[in-house]
């Protein structure tokens, strides 16, 4: 198979082992852990061109390229990572990882628990936070010999990690790109996560999280959780254009099987997700979202928290994103401006809703390329602190 000219091509994941104990915010300790990592591009001599990619809820280390010659699908952010793309691997050394608690090679609920005869952790895996993830990412940075990231980039939950980086390790990144994100979840977002969790917890095949030991899997609960989540990732306009009220058979069947195209789509998305994702991981990821609030240690003042930062910021939101609305990004921008921090903000008119950050929307790509490329100004799209 010949890959596109702007693809990173075949990539091979690497597993990094950390033998030192990891103390977590929940007051538990992982005696050791592993991180699954992919890298694209070449690290320069002074290690000044490294960019860290932080993934969202269902993401993982495979952000770009292909694992096999016959792969039909590239990494989840292949549209933005590669030669000549917004995150240009001709210029940058790009690092993408699967966070702990995940289910794609890093230590998580399906990993062997050394304190329980190497049986899968299952529900015994500790709850982790965005701060815990950033801590492990900093440890990975040390292992790679990267003292300072040229940029830390993330969308959605990944944007929260980028934001946490800027507060916890202000001297270790030059630029921070936060896309379709928020400084903390709203009550509505926590509610969506709780409905998704309950769909899993109430599945008879969940077995209190010990489904692997019971040779079962809460497939129905995970399908429903994904269906609920997926609705929030799309805008009303995107669903209208994609499905409208189209019927699969062209007529009402007067039953409870799939009739509308949108029903078929949601069931397909749920089915595919249930084949590739772990239910305990889903619970952990949504809890990490709920707990995220970098202002908590600063009297719940985002302005105080942002006062710690030293890097340049690019904040991007999308007009039809109602899961993390533009007003949530504006909260971050306002806190940075109050602190006279360098920030560029762009609210992009896009119809795809929250998932817009995964698409190569021209203005979005152009803006990120300009910001990462070191251009001094983003013309009319910038909001600079004075």
UniProtKB/TrEMBL annotation:
The record marks 323 as: Important for acyl-CoA specificity. SUPFAM superfamilies: alpha/beta-Hydrolases. Homodimer. Substrate binds at residues 226, 355. It catalyses: L-homoserine + succinyl-CoA = O-succinyl-L-homoserine + CoA. GO terms for cellular component: cytoplasm. Its main location: cytoplasm. One of its GO terms (biological process) is homoserine metabolic process. NCBIfam families: homoserO_Ac_trn, PRK00175.1. Pathway: Amino-acid biosynthesis; L-methionine biosynthesis via de novo pathway; O-succinyl-L-homoserine from L-homoserine: step 1/1. It comes from Acinetobacter lactucae. This is Homoserine O-succinyltransferase. Residues 49-347 form the AB hydrolase-1 domain. GO terms for molecular function: homoserine O-acetyltransferase activity; homoserine O-succinyltransferase activity. The keyword Acyltransferase applies. InterPro entries: AB_hydrolase_1, AB_hydrolase_fold, HAT_MetX-like. The gene is metXS. It is found in: Cytoplasm.
